[in-house]
Fold this protein.
Amino acid sequence: MSDNREEIAKSISCYGLPYGTWGLACWLVASVTTFLTYARPRKRQFMPLFIVKIVMTVGPVIFTCIRCHGEWVFVLIACGKLAPWALKMLNDRITLQFFKIGKYNDDSDDEGTENKKVTKAVNVILGTCAVLTIIILCIGGWAALVKFVLIVAPPKYKDSFNVASAWISVIISSIIFIVVLLCVSMCLCACINKISECFGSDEDIAGIVVIYFLVASHVLFSHILLADLYKDWNGLASEKYSRISAIIFLVGRNLHIIDFLQYLYESYSNR
């Protein structure tokens, strides 16, 4: 792994995910759909579309990891971009039940006791796997972001930087960021919940907003740092296969809009 800014910038051809303008737009759309569809499990899952979304989201990440296997920062950044997608799994019925088992299981008198025990066990296992996946991806993404900050830092500051001071700076900045985020979330939670109510959700989503930004903020910052490093805010690699991979990822991530439209359809059809 090279620490030279110019050498790292030349490796853009291996990076098969969007960044810059396209990356920021994708992140924004995914965030909005996550907030508005939080705690609203679908009545039915169209399995072919679900599989397509997984392939189009995970496939480009695997492609990037294989091509960038010599640059561990790119590998961690690519895997870290799955953190918001993994968090989205917590909105599905199975993983949501891990946190709200009583809401979906305990009130179902028509289900057999044995079936409820099996369902609860499966929910706990899958929910735990989802949470562990989010934590691992989040830690990897933030670690890669710290390394990238050191790479992108101007040369005149690099000599005075060392690993210890860099981590201390990141920890202090993260604490300040979390405090500010909590304050902003508390101030805006009423507005956020009001918007959610317009789409038929009665859940308090202020908490998920805070968690989402803590988990997914490194993705936002990586889009900006990559664009600055490559001096290309378009956000799509010039190399043919990397560009195709980035476009596939963009389409796959934005297919979550279909979930939101399905929520709207089910909400209005039940009125």
User: Anything to note?
Assistant: The first helix runs from residue 5 to 9. The chain has 13 helices and no strands. Residues 98-112, 198-202 have pLDDT under 50 and may be disordered. Residues 5-269 form one domain.
